[in-house]
Amino acid sequence: MKNLWQFIYNSIFIPVFALLIRLASIFNKKIKRGIRGRKRIFEDLILNRTALNNNKKIIWFHSSSLGEFEQAKPIIEKLDKEINLNIIVSFYSPSGYDNSKKYPHADIITYMPLDTKWRAEKFINLIKPSVSVFMRYDIWPNHIWTLGRNNIPVFLVDATMKKKSLRKLPLIKSFHRYIFREFSKILTITSEDAEGFKDFGCDPEKIKVVGDTRFDRVYGRSLAAKNTEIIDENILQNKKVLVAGSTWEQDEDVLMSVFKKLVEFDREILLIIAPHEPTLLHLEKIENEFAGVLSTIRLSHIKNYINQRVIIVDSIGILSILYKYADVAFVGGSFKQNVHNVLEAAVYGIPVLFGPKIENSQEAKQLVETAGGMLVRGKKEMYRRLRSLFLDDNLRRRRGEKSFEYVQRNIGATEKIYSEIKKII
After folding, report:
1. What is the CA radius of gyration of the chain?
2. Which residues is 243 bridged to in the sheet?
């Protein structure tokens, strides 16, 4: 049956997928960038491979995009610190590759090639890993099968398997059965995930619950943020700060009208708003929404601050630090489609608010259960929640403590994953 699935995958799926990618690149700049980035992938690998120390073993980490790579970073940095290794990192997405090219803990950063059989074999023969690690769910069958044929241990890390996963549909499940069985270890986030992988006939001895490295990542970044100053503390002194992170227009439609009303009753409240896409048009739209009602200033002009009530973040990559200034946080995406990373805020021990669209985030659901997070369904509910939190210091402190306790309870996955990799490498 495995041979049949390999034949179908290589004879039907991959040719169709390659054609669709080519067609999509005509309309999508990101896909076109990925195709261009792969043109010299093997030539660049041959050149970069010569710079590696041949006396060191090689470990290869693959992530789909930047989000999954953030989960890999704590493991990579632990290995880099503890074991003398060559570390190769690959991406499927241009966003991951473009934003990580200068990552200091990797010796080679590359795209993963299209998952044809000959490309997978050439790629793995070039990098010659001693161990390979796939993050979360971005697994490419020909690469996995090639690793298996070469007896190279392969880990699936931060693995999830939801009850209603499409991978459990009959034919798709049969196909994935012959992929998951190739893994040397499947390290899952929860026991429910572990049971899900057992449904595919995976050896229970190869499955282990270790937790989620995202908790370790946000905790480590919060410690580093203590020594980073973006906004002068004097600006925030005696103010109650609401940080709204990764907001979309749907989030802002609710948030901005609520904030205008809050300021009518409390002139000490300050909003720091970080739109998910801080394009010039988006920044101007936010400024226009507050025009004539509240004064605003862009973060890039913060040295000219004269008691504006709204600071608009016009750069990216600093949100996880900005949350340290917050008394309360609102995490965006939750009124649009999917809530963004709630852990980046919760790690600072503050109450975390978000809209109703949180099906993508177990962390948001669990924060609500632990009373550190609060789901708000509209303007009235958001206003009531924020008004209560800013009026009652004890309530705000108790909610914040629950947020931090939740993060703290879940720290430690990196150490467990490191221990499993160390056994083999």
Report:
1. 23
2. 272, 329
Q: Which of 20-34, 184-198, 249-263 has the lowest mean pLDDT?
A: 20-34
pLDDT in tens, 395-425: 999 999 999 999 999 999 999 999 999 999 8
**Measured between alpha carbons, how far is 383 from 405 in angstroms, rounded to an integer?**
26
**What's the CA gap between 355 and 368, in Å, rounded?**
12
Distance CA 118, CA 349 (A): 50
How far apart CA 173 and CA 42 sit, in angstroms, is 33
- Asked whether 188 and 207 are in contact (CB, 8 A), the reply is yes
pLDDT band at 83 (very low <50, low <70, confident <90, very high): very high
Q: 92: closest CA among 163, 14, 38?
A: 38
Q: Which domains does the chain have, with CATH numbers?
A: 25-212+412-424 (3.40.50.11720), 229-409 (3.40.50.2000)
CA distances from residue 342 to 40, 320, 355, 366 in whole angstroms, order as listed: 38, 10, 11, 11
